[in-house]
Amino acid sequence: MRSVEKINLKYSKPIKPSVGQTNLSRTDTSKRIPFKTKVLHLDKQIGIYRMWFRFLKLGLELEQMNYKVRGMKNDKLIPIKVNHKFYKDWDLDLVLTTSFDKWISVKRDLFLDNDHIELVEKINDTNQYYYIEVDKSLSQRKLRRLITELTDKLPDKKQPKKKNYFTPLQQHKYPNLHIYYNVFILSRTKDWKRKDYMDKLSEMYWGYSRRLTKPEQKLMSEQRKRGLKENEKEISTEFQLPNTENSIRRCLRRGEEVLIDVCKGKF
Asked: How far, in Å, CA of 22 to CA of 239, rounded?
């Protein structure tokens, strides 16, 4: 492992898989944000947004420390700089000091497309939405008909410009982000050798399995019926952890790359 500057982090700590889960790839896979009685859908599983938040929190903390990491195109040290203009609506002071769950409860609209209909308890006093009054005794059939008739009566005028919302653009895998983040934190706070990382990761992710793809599920079923062919590798749900110095180094490098991208506003 290459040497990196050791630091004390106040807000960013190693994270463990959620308690009670037995499949890391399914941890936080819900695409819904619970908000009191409201449930709205996201483009990605909420765990991806959670890791976005964590890497941004880490970037903000490192920025305050004038910390430097190695650039992606060369080995030159570059300072961590967060694109405050890109994240101007995120309330970055709150990102740094609070948990994701508390933050998302007040910033949920940043990640939601406005192509949705929901039941509300309080009217949002803006020019972005239409509000209708409906008698609760109406049947669903009659309600659908009345809403269809109502849309024909809406004023034919230019609607407010649709606001942009934040959504991950890259194809991230939640388990990988989880490990990249932890390896980055551990590498900056512990003076460890390769075996120390392997032991710690095994301890943290012990008992967790990965979710198989549909082709893997099909092949596993075939293998169980016919047995393994010569030199055929058995399909397993075992979660693959980095177990060599090179693989741990790659995780560290990927963690640095994700951190730099997040700080730039690319995720």
From this structure: 11
pLDDT at residue 96, as a whole number: 95
Cα(200)–Cα(181) distance, integer angstroms: 14
> How is residue 174 written in tokens?
């939640």
Q: What is the pLDDT of residue 26?
A: 45
Identify the segments of the chain with pLDDT beneath 50.
Answer: 19-22, 26-29, 33-39
Provide the residue ranges of all domains of the chain, joining segments of one domain with +.
24-113+164-264
The one-letter code for the residue type at 11 is Y
Q: Which three-class secondary structure string do you get for 3-54?
A: CCCCCCCCCCCCCCCCCCCCEHHHCCCCCEEEECCEEEECCCCHHHHHHHHH
Q: What global pTM score does this model have?
A: 0.71
Q: Over the stretch 79-123, which tens digit does the pLDDT of each residue have?
A: 999 999 999 999 999 999 999 989 988 888 788 765 556 666 667
Closest Cα partner for 170 from 44, 86, 76, 63? 44
Cα–Cα distance between 167 and 48 in angstroms, integer? Answer: 10
Q: Read off the tokens for 2.
A: 């290459």
**If residue 87 lies in a helix (H) or strand (E), which one and from where to where?**
none
Q: 62: closest CA among 4, 100, 9, 2? A: 9
For 66-93, b/e burial (b = at least 16 CB within 10 A) is ebebbeeeeeeeeebebeeeebeebebe
